Amino acid sequence: MKLIVTGPRGKMGRLITQAAAKHSDIELIAGVGPSGRDYIGKDLGDVAMTGRQLGVSVVDNLESVIDSCDVIIDFSTKEMGMQVLESAVRHKKALVCGTTGFSPEEMAKFREAASSIPMLYAANTSKLVNIMNKLLEIVTTAVGDEADIEILEMHDQWKKDAPSGTSKEMGEIMAHAMGKELDDIAVYGRHGASPREKGTIGYHSLRAGNIPSSHTVYFGFMGERLEITHHSYNWECFARGAVDCGVFLADKAPGWYTIQDVLHLS
């Protein structure tokens, strides 16, 4: 599989590049960074700190290298992500996107792209997070109408969007298990007089220090509660999962794929 990684100096792009460089079935074609960065033109291995040079460069123009790849993995910014999507569709290249913070209208464009390219969008590429999502679906199907559901998510001080894309996905899974839409039942934080309304899903977002990622879902009952929690100690689990998604997508026909398909959880 011939792979392009965007944002190879970023925390996720760097780790994805490192994971891909160790993978025997992957050939890295290029890294793509924003125009004007001081690492443009340098060896991708040096930029992503893989411990060795890879013999390919980081460029600032995806169009100049895209025809040489099979798959693009994009964990960059929402602005760059939309540009990558447009190029992938134009050149009929498979795309794995893990960037978060897109509007509903922007997400609709990713859905539309699946009619012409293999498209996999995953707010979280951790294997255990996605197993947790399956557990949330099971629990909510069984007790969702009875439980008070609250989500507490924690990330580092640099996290741009709140709630996290992962916690939104968790909320959507649970809302759908109850036959509802998340937009209709989500409550984001509380202040002052705000008694809990039955059937809602509460969101609470913490941002502090360099916390990698932590998500806890509480199912509250009278006299007892169930907590399902995932903690990541670093971002390597997400990078490995993203690379697995790229390998999965390489030989697929155009369509909308999820990490549940990759992990055989669907």
Automatic annotation (TrEMBL):
Its EC number is 1.17.1.8. InterPro entries: DapB_C, DapB_N, DapB_N_CS, DHDPR_bac, NAD(P)-bd_dom_sf. The active site is at residues 155, 159. NADP(+) binds at residue 42. Pfam families: DapB_C (PF05173), DapB_N (PF01113). GO terms for molecular function: 4-hydroxy-tetrahydrodipicolinate reductase. It catalyses: (S)-2,3,4,5-tetrahydrodipicolinate + NAD(+) + H2O = (2S,4S)-4-hydroxy-2,3,4,5-tetrahydrodipicolinate + NADH + H(+); (S)-2,3,4,5-tetrahydrodipicolinate + NADP(+) + H2O = (2S,4S)-4-hydroxy-2,3,4,5-tetrahydrodipicolinate + NADPH + H(+). Transmembrane segments: none annotated. It is found in: Cytoplasm. (S)-2,3,4,5-tetrahydrodipicolinate binds at residues 165-166. Residues 1-124 form the Dihydrodipicolinate reductase N-terminal domain. The keyword Metal-binding does not apply. Pathway: Amino-acid biosynthesis; L-lysine biosynthesis via DAP pathway; (S)-tetrahydrodipicolinate from L-aspartate: step 4/4. PANTHER family: 4-HYDROXY-TETRAHYDRODIPICOLINATE REDUCTASE 1, CHLOROPLASTIC-RELATED (PTHR20836:SF0), DIHYDRODIPICOLINATE REDUCTASE (PTHR20836). Belongs to the DapB family. Homotetramer. This is 4-hydroxy-tetrahydrodipicolinate reductase. It comes from Claveliimonas monacensis.
